[in-house]
Description:
By secondary structure, the protein is α/β, with parallel strands linked by helices.
Amino acid sequence: xxxxxxxxxxxxxxxxxxxxxxxxxxDRVGLLAGRPDSPLRRVLLAVDAVAATVHEARAEGxxxxxxxxxPTPDTVAHAEAAGLALYTxxxxxxxxxxxxxxxxxxxxxxxxxxxxxxxxxxxxxxVVFVPLSGVERLIEAAAAAGAGVIxxxxxxxxxxxxxxxxxxxxxxxxxxxxxxxxxxxxEARVEMTLPRSRxxxxxxxxxxxxxxxxxxxxxxELAELPDGHGHGRVGELPRAMSAxxxxxxxxxxxxxxxxxxRPLRTVAVCAGAGGRFVEAATACGVDAYLAGDLAAxxxxxxxxxxxxxxxxxxxxxxxxxxxxxxxxxxxxVRVSARDTDRWSLLGPRPETGDPVHADGPAxxxxxxxSGERSC
Length: 375
């Protein structure tokens, strides 16, 4: 990436890593405050978007605050007034791979993982017939509206040439051909995938970019197949260990329910509020389930409640390193050390190496983290 960075550059990376079409429809995710074309010089990451983290970001000269938990309208207004861009990845980061639960699984040293509760992607295929001279313009417009994303690849499209035929009726204003006469035109069939949530935007962009008065545009729904995304993760420890040893790997305070002496090998995790997936963990037959905001239940599995805020926090360090790598170390990225957990725990927080600069440039002299810890 060359040239000065903008908020749009970071948003593009974050949207690719945590596709917004994976979010709950009622969830507020994405860029919630700020302008995409604003300069980007520093980034602060935090679990919560609250007044304290907005103030911290501006006090340290950050232009963008990235959080997991969504803000209240008052916090959005506070960010806007402070001239701060605010981006939230909540339910989409909980489902996307890699996401919050992948970072949690990595802390515990789990091997290759699968989703605890798979969430299939809802995707369509756009098919457009366009003159050969308009192929590139159409693909560019549809891609800018959200089509053509496959994994880490952008602007993905397939097209082939053919011949289109039509008769312009009386009253038509054809870009090619003559009213009342059979017309033959060299055309291309262009196909691009898109998130179902972007239907309106992609169709509008394709029609705007099309030279014909009546573009031939079609949408086909794809089967909803699992593709690695989902809530939580399930994997194996490198060796059997007790609940105490597993808690030691976590490095923070935990509550344990169940037989803490039994050997544990297969483990399910869910960063954040994981209480609703206890039954899924039980059905998977795992030995232990580590998540936040659990209620004690008769096992198996052994339940380890590490707190919703704390289990999300490892994701911040992983995301900071991703952002720094994308910008080749030219963009300072730091994880907030501020404790915004609604609960106070007696015990250590899991260490994630914060505050970090993710191998990017250090903060300028005189700028220091203003983190607070309640334990």
